Amino acid sequence: MRMNRLNRRELLRQSVQAGCVAGSAMALGSRVQTARGESPPTPDSLPIVDTHQHLWDLEKLPPPWLKGAADVLRRSYVTKDYLEATQGLNVVKAVYMEIALDPQDHVAEAESVIELCRSGKHPTVAAVISGRPDTEEFRPYILKYRDNPFIKGVRQVLHSGDTPPGFCLRPEFVRSMQLLGEIGMSFDLCLRPDELGDGVRLVDQCRDTRFILDHCGNADVTAFLADRGGSDQKPSHDPDLWRRNISELAKRDNVICKISGIVARAPAGNWTADILAPIINHCLDAFGPDRVVFGGDWPVCLTGASYRRWVEALREVIHDRSLDHQRRLLHDNAVRFYSL
Question: What would the pLDDT profile of 236-276 be if each residue is shown by its tens digit?
């Protein structure tokens, strides 16, 4: 058993090293293109892998939480709509993200997205499915998908109103996280920003499991406006505590950070990219170029901006970073992490 744990840990280490090799190969490829007289890639032409794509069809599997959601979300969003939203942005692949369905619908959701991926007719090529890791039923449920090439991991949203602090530290939950590491699956951490310390304690008990921190730790843009003296509104969470916990999570090499979600809470009106910069830059600096991925969070992002506006704002924030680093964030890291 100890040998298995060491092998998994070695695989995690090698995956980070592979990112460095991939970056060097991309740089060499750019030089070859230039030598041949071809146009080198530009930031706007970089391919994108979207690691956080939601889809729902209200006639098939309606998410129960939509009843209290913003009007813009209370309709079906299917692949056709996604293709329209991403048109012209060079989104080449997408990873489906679970949509917080009732547990009785989890198997139907998983089977549906497997068929979507298997068809080869859609940008969706992999999936993170729903699950309830605190239950005894989780083990037989997830083991059914351990050898499925399209199922990459599991998520349960932990910031809903009825989920208490410390929920992810329950013994059954921790055992389920360790099981995910044993079968080569990941878990998406979606916590309240003031409870990221729970994530640190969970990760420390599951060092052979890969965790993906969703939505920059659910940082609220308005909290950082107040922190910078740009708003009279009381911060919805402590920005300094968020910074410290992001830095702590980044010290764990089995955690990666998803640059996503924050635009959904952008203030109404003509906001500019600079209000997103403190969150994005802290995450990029803390995790480094090899442990960050892009997520569209569509269609939830529509509560703050269109998909295009989110991509354009992100490109504006990262434009001073090297082309190599931008490509790793937008494409290469996701291909490597999810074995796409």
Answer: 899 999 999 999 999 999 999 999 999 998 888 889 999 99
Tell me which residue has tokens 């098939």: 60
> 6 falls in which pLDDT band (50, 70, 90)?
very low
Which region holds residue 339: left if phi is over 0, alpha if psi is between -120 and 50, else beta? left
Pairing of strands 151-155, 292-294: unpaired
The per-residue DSSP string of 218-255 comes to H--HHHHHHHTTS--SPPSS-HHHHHHHHHHHHTSTTE
* Domain interval for residue 333: 2-337
Q: What is the pLDDT of residue 37?
A: 57
Tell me if the bond preceding 299 is cis, omega within 30° of 0: yes
Residues 6+ apart with CB under 8 A from 221: 262, 263, 265, 266, 267, 271, 275, 276, 279
Average pLDDT, the chain: 90
Distance CA 186, CA 29 (A): 31
> Which helix (H) or strand (E) element contains residue 161?
none
Read off φ and ψ for residue 148, nearest 5 degrees: -80, 125
Give the Cβ contact number of residue 162 at 10 Å: 5
Q: How many domains does the chain fold into?
A: 1
Q: Which of 266, 302, 335, 267 is nearest to 85 (CA)?
A: 302
- pLDDT band of residue 100 (cuts 50, 70, 90) is very high
CA–CA dist 329, 300 (Å, integer): 21
Beta bridge partners, 255, equal 211
Q: Residue 334: what pLDDT?
A: 98
User: In terms of residues, how long is the chain?
Assistant: 340
In the chain, the amino acid numbered 168 is: C
Instruction: Name the band, by pLDDT with cuts 50, 70 and 90, for residue 10.
Output: low
- CATH number of the domain bearing residue 84: 3.20.20.140
Amino acid in position 15: S
Q: Please check whether residue 198 is in contact with residue 191, taking contact to mean a CB–CB distance below 8 angstroms.
A: yes
Say if CB 162 and CB 185 are below 8 A apart: no
Please give the Cα distance from 266 to 221 (Å, whole number): 6
The packing angle between helices 239-250 and 277-287, to 10°, is 20
